[in-house]
Amino acid sequence: MQGDTNDLVFEPAYFSDANPATALDMVQRVPGFTIDGGDAVRGYAGGAGNVLIDGARPSTKNITLTAVLQAIPASQVERIELIRGERPGIDRQGAQLLVNVVRKQEQSATRSYTLSGYAYPDGIVRPSLRFETSRRTGSGGWEGSLLLSTNQDESGTGTRLRRDAQGQEIERADIAIDSPIKGGEARLAGDFPFAGGTLRGNGSLTYQDYRTRERLSFATGPFGGTEARIDDRIETVSGELGAEWTRQFGKALTTKVLLLGTRKDTAIRSASDEGGVTSDFASDSLADERILRIAFDRPSDDGLGWEAGGEIAYNSLGSRAGLTLDGLPFALPNSNVIVTEWRGDLFGRIKWQLTPAFQAEGTIRAEQSALRQRDRSNGESYGRDFTYVKPKLALQWDIGARDQLRLRAEREVSQLDFSDFASTASLIEGTIDAGNADLKPETAWILEAAWERRFIRDGAVTMTLRHDRIDNVLDRVAIGTLDAPGNIGRGTVNAAALGLSWPLDSLGLQGGRVNFDGEWRHSTVRDPITGNKRSITAKAPFAGEFHATLDRPELKSTFTLDVYFGQELTYSRIDEVRRTSAQPYVSLKWTYRPNTRLTLEASAENILSRRRERDRSLYDGPRNSGDLLFEESRSFRSRPGLFLSLRYQ
Fold this sequence. Notes:
This protein has 649 residues and is mainly β. It has a single domain, classed as TonB-dependent receptor, beta-barrel domain (Maltoporin, Chain A). The protein is built from two helices and 38 strands.
């Protein structure tokens, strides 16, 4: 399992007890590693994940890493590498740990068909069909996939209760929520020799139709005996083309050139009818992104290497929205806008192997962007230019064969969400948000220390402490009488994370393993309305998940328990405080692989019928001066379901 360096190498035999069908099955079992798909940001560097395919990141942002790994048959995998230090030609892009899936350099061809579906107690069935094909030669290959899917977001029944400022009940209603999803995805990717190097390409087209239907039956209150409805639909069509060329010149210089373009069309339609009062909201937006990235990597025999490069990105978002309340138009500021950005990012990185056990990395990045917004309803334009320097120092100390200490000090600059510049509304949530043209990116100094300990044969525990000192915290401000995203000053986040992968063989449970990943956070910022300190809006104090697996090769089976802990979120709006929470989502799964061609999976989903809650305190003005209008408590339990999947390869 141990490689020539502190990297860890996992051969296919390591995963044999689980009889994996895809590369995803293998990567999910690498001890001490959790797949991170990267951040949903503009540009490529900030959106990179932590999984490589043959030493390179997939040239895609639209397709998830899990989908990319699922398209690679396990039979094509030569080995899985857990990269824990620097390696020539590898652009870590800030990731502390990387997994590299190395495919066999031999001729092969595979096809697989997967028929799956969810079934629910009320008789609803949501089927899906997936087709995958791939062909490899000694010098390259290609893979393609087609997915037609239907699904169901958490749906169920519950109650909504409103009380006045004196605590007296003013309204009670029963809730029924149904959230069907349907979509499709087509992807084609390949790699082959080109101009002395390797050219990797990727193309994809995706479609999703996400609907939410909410029905309220009023038992008490002014609408007692009547019913209300809220229908919400989000339809998204996106496409992507990407290519990356990599070539090594001599033994010391690796060059990478990336071209990537994405396009996303989103249409939102919402309608409500409550007590005869109707509301309608419509929004259409088109996002466009184009990226050119060039990077050079030169390691050195004396332990000192460097990396340099740059990225140019063009982004645009055109958004048009309209809202009517009881048939009358409601004036939304910035409801018809187009936002554009040209952004350039230059970086240089020095990598120094001080000793075989100690290495340092120093990075300096310079970012400049020109942001422009035009209100198409009145022709007014607004623009801002930003320049940031982003230094980083990372140290890594391998303390013997089992322990590793990682330290990081870095200045991070977030990216503005273009949708924050345009007005929007949610009839489901009962909120109206104004667009805000006067936004600045969050900047933060990050101090982080992580200690990793490898134990027993393949156990791992990682403990991480992090302090974020944030300037220009992006939270909530007032624009006229409406709530809007905006910068509210300085804030902090202190976090502690624990990652554990523990094989249970030593406890007498052969083939058993538990995995836990969790992070505890404490954030503070000064509320612009009350002047008091509070948590940053929508910053969860805890997020985590737990997984337990039991391999039984003699039964050709694997049994899995998955627990996804619910998050508690607080939204501090101008005239409202909202708190949401959810109980853990728990599922039990049985995977049966009688041979290398057939995989049967059956799982009981959401077996605890988890409860979701939302509490609101709504005022007739700003929270510091307005009177409390009502307090609302909303709770519903989502339905459990049964998932069945049959994969033939």
